[in-house]
Amino acid sequence: MPTGSSSMSRRDLLSMIGTVAGSAAMYQAMTTLGFAQESPFTGSLKLDGDPKGASVLILGAGLAGMVAAYELRKAGYKVQILEYREVAGGRCWTIRGGDKYTELGGFEQECKFDEGQYLNPGPWRVPYHHHGVLHYAKEFGVEMQPFNQVNHNAYLHSSKAFDGKPQRFRHINADFNGHVAELLAKSTNQGGLDQAVSTEDREKLLDALRGWGALDKDYAYVKGVDSSERRGYRVDPGGGQMPVAEPSDPIGLSEIVQSGLWRNLSTGNLYEFQTAIFQPVGGMDMIAKGFEKEIGDLVTYNAKVIEIDQDDQGVTVHYVDSVTGGEPKTATADWCICTIPFSVLSQVKTKVSSEMQAAIDNLPYAASVKVGLQFKRRFWEEDEHIYGGITFTDLPNTLISYPSSEFFSKGKGVLLGAYSWGAWAMQFTSLPPEERVKKALEYGAQIHPQYNDEFDNGISIGWHRVPWTLGCYGTWSEDSRKAHYQAASSIDGRIAMAGEHISYIPAWQEGAILSGLDAISRLHQRVING
Amino acid sequence: MPTGSSSMSRRDLLSMIGTVAGSAAMYQAMTTLGFAQESPFTGSLKLDGDPKGASVLILGAGLAGMVAAYELRKAGYKVQILEYREVAGGRCWTIRGGDKYTELGGFEQECKFDEGQYLNPGPWRVPYHHHGVLHYAKEFGVEMQPFNQVNHNAYLHSSKAFDGKPQRFRHINADFNGHVAELLAKSTNQGGLDQAVSTEDREKLLDALRGWGALDKDYAYVKGVDSSERRGYRVDPGGGQMPVAEPSDPIGLSEIVQSGLWRNLSTGNLYEFQTAIFQPVGGMDMIAKGFEKEIGDLVTYNAKVIEIDQDDQGVTVHYVDSVTGGEPKTATADWCICTIPFSVLSQVKTKVSSEMQAAIDNLPYAASVKVGLQFKRRFWEEDEHIYGGITFTDLPNTLISYPSSEFFSKGKGVLLGAYSWGAWAMQFTSLPPEERVKKALEYGAQIHPQYNDEFDNGISIGWHRVPWTLGCYGTWSEDSRKAHYQAASSIDGRIAMAGEHISYIPAWQEGAILSGLDAISRLHQRVING
């Protein structure tokens, strides 16, 4: 509606655009006017211009390599991929019953999960704003389902607080919010914030604090219906003449701040974990399989790269069979996209500039471990009413994640029983696989005593022992970004690096996808410009 | 591990119980020791004792009536149900393409949704602690999927704030938390809360506020990576040499408190809406169909009750065909469970005590309306990256809910375009159905301009015009509970009332289920004792 002022409001403008030009134009205008935000992913890549038969050799059939292959072939390039493993996907990986996996050092594990059960050793979540991953998942018909990141009925656990007894997330969350709101209301009412909060805002802030924090009419967070409508009741309301509801007792602020359990209250508010967040139905590698169906014909599997050479004319790569060894073979192309993790590439003779070599040699990779545990029944659902979500603990297993699929099913289930980083990951990984499983069971049983009776079998992946990555992801420090990222991400002669490590979203599949798309965009410009 | 103290810790006790008696005993002990909370639903009903051929006539095949029928037949009773409609379920109802619905006043609508699309006019969510509903859903094999209640990328909208421009939930949420944390940190640092927060707690509270509110090292909530890691970036981080990320600008506290948008920040923390929360795959009536498959043979459909009589010997109910009318028929039984909403029952001649009659006559029913809108494409996903969840607005449509199923599908989609209560529901319901749809479109287009181009068809249910409920649910005030609930929930001669209105969880299916279970439990005691 017209505002009466001489300048057109943004809404008036939008309304006019909508009427005249339809909703697509309207949405474009919304973006321009700041309604929408910018994403580095701008839709399916258009590589205009004729590559005139140029060839590209891609090293690694993970997501970065596969998205590059997929888009380059569409644009008219000759493409070949060398992949170390027997399947595509890289860290986009799912382990299922019957799968065998041999880690560095020779430990072999065979997964004993039942049919339909799985563990994603690497990425396991796709946030709603990872537009690249979601774009290709949709294009390839990969079915997605919500990943429950936050579960108010899961636990926060500290072995040093509450006598080691796990606390429901909803209790700590509601009580922390309630106490914060009460304290701030008190301060506001006492005039302690008169310089920070204007008179006009004061009453509304108090209203907001009362509503948000579940305070009573006197701005106090107390036992009663208001607080129990957040934290849950001691006895839930019922039907007919069942026992009447009883409110539950809030936990004091001091106990909460001393417990440290507030540390995991905000994970669901983080940009990367906030709703909506997804997982592919059936396992993360459904995304890899989607790509592989498209470009699997371009892949030479079991190819271990042993040397990368280049000159003004092109790139020559020497490789051997990663299983049988034998005589080296050679692949050549005009250009190369290398997605081999720097942790591995630093051990491969590679002809690149000294700046690039320094980048390769100076990127540490994070230690991380995951342990998957199959149980005979879904006791977390049946006994404890936890359907998906994550329990956080200060024990070395760090967390327990409950499956976000097959809810209420009567059969077995697989928990992510440990997902640890840094020193704890090193500790886990230093043990033989069966000992890692035992440790995860020992820690988890302190939260779920049912572990002792219900355990079926387990499997573990310590990323430092994964032969084809030697670590979980590339950990840039602020200093190392300054020193090496520009070189690492530049086309070096005829070689461009790609992968999560060549991105500002390391460890995430979106980083790999965007890195792959960015590398081929710049490569393409170089090719068509001469 | 032993603590060295002479008294056994709860954990030691549990550990011992677990070792000696297994995990089921352990879980029992956990409950006893306060690890678990009490639910009024204690598992599948055991009605011990022989009812010796007693018969029960149930009025209404909604969830209360059907759960009563299911359990009573299992316990050996002769059961018959009279149902007004042509199908079972009552308010557990789903409308799909091809369904026709005639409301009070004669307006007939035919749903034009495409196959697979639906609207739940009544209940649409099942919280994780509605153990009764979830128990039977599991027993009948009803597949459940997560309902996205909170979506950080959906909107909060006020026509009176931000120039009418909808705000992403994540922006208001992150900024509200950030400002609250900053203000409280300031007050704490200035010593304004020295009486409320002990010296030992102060540093930890400050740590907690910084972490929780995304404050910087000086306890300020400012533009930067910390705040953007909650609210999202202006330009997201990318791959390779894509434009570098740019943080977004937080909104000031004053704008947020003045906007009123904080009102809907907490819905996802409410006990009834917090995660995990579910919907049946394919529509809420899958639960009704689960019951109907079990006890449908007991139901006389299209039976409109016109009189309920009782004496010392039993109950006699007169009914006519609800479609064709005609001669009254009669059903008799030893006992009666009446689930007819009091809004309807108050118009039926019923032989009950004056106390019960007063309860029946004095329960107002809430006005509520839902409008379902089918669109030609899922523009909320494709253009705005909103996958499930709810946008709240101060316009009379109150909210827009995005489907929590078929994410990323390329076809059409149905939005809940209005879900309003009270005066706004009255306003909507006073209009003819097509006008309600128009209103919902007009309001919604202020949030999603794509409405104008993409609308396909719509349908609306105003609960005050639903012939078999004449309202949405029974709204007990504190006073009316005191005056009438005891009578309403007592067995009156040979008649017991059941339904959501005979519960402390009105409007929820759990209230209906628990009410039905409670009524038959008490009825059964009376039968076997006398």
CATH top level assignment of the largest domain in chain A: Alpha Beta
Named CATH topology of the largest domain in chain A:
Polyamine Oxidase, Chain A, domain 2
Indicate the percent of residues in helices of chain A.
25-40%
Q: How far apart lie the N and C ends of chain A?
A: 54 Å
Main β sheet profile of chain A: 5 strands, parallel
Describe the protein's architecture and organization.
The structure is a homodimer of 530-residue chains. Helices cover 34% and strands 19% of the residues of chain A. Chain A is an alpha/beta fold. Chain A folds into four domains: 1-30, no CATH class; 55-89 and 288-363 and 478-528, FAD/NAD(P)-binding domain (3-Layer(bba) Sandwich); 95-153 and 275-283 and 366-465, Alpha-Beta Complex (Polyamine Oxidase, Chain A, domain 2), CATH 3.90.660.10; 169-259, de novo design (two linked rop proteins) (Up-down Bundle), CATH 1.20.1440. In chain A, the strands form seven sheets. A five-stranded parallel β-sheet of chain A has the order 12-2-1-16-23, covered by helices on one side. Chain A has a four-stranded mixed β-sheet with strand order 10-9-19-20. Chain A has a four-stranded mixed β-sheet with strand order 15-14-13-17, with no helix packed on it. In chain A, helix 2 runs parallel beside helix 8 (285-295) and helix 4 (169-189) runs antiparallel to helix 5 (199-213). The interface between A and B is large, with 138 and 136 residues.
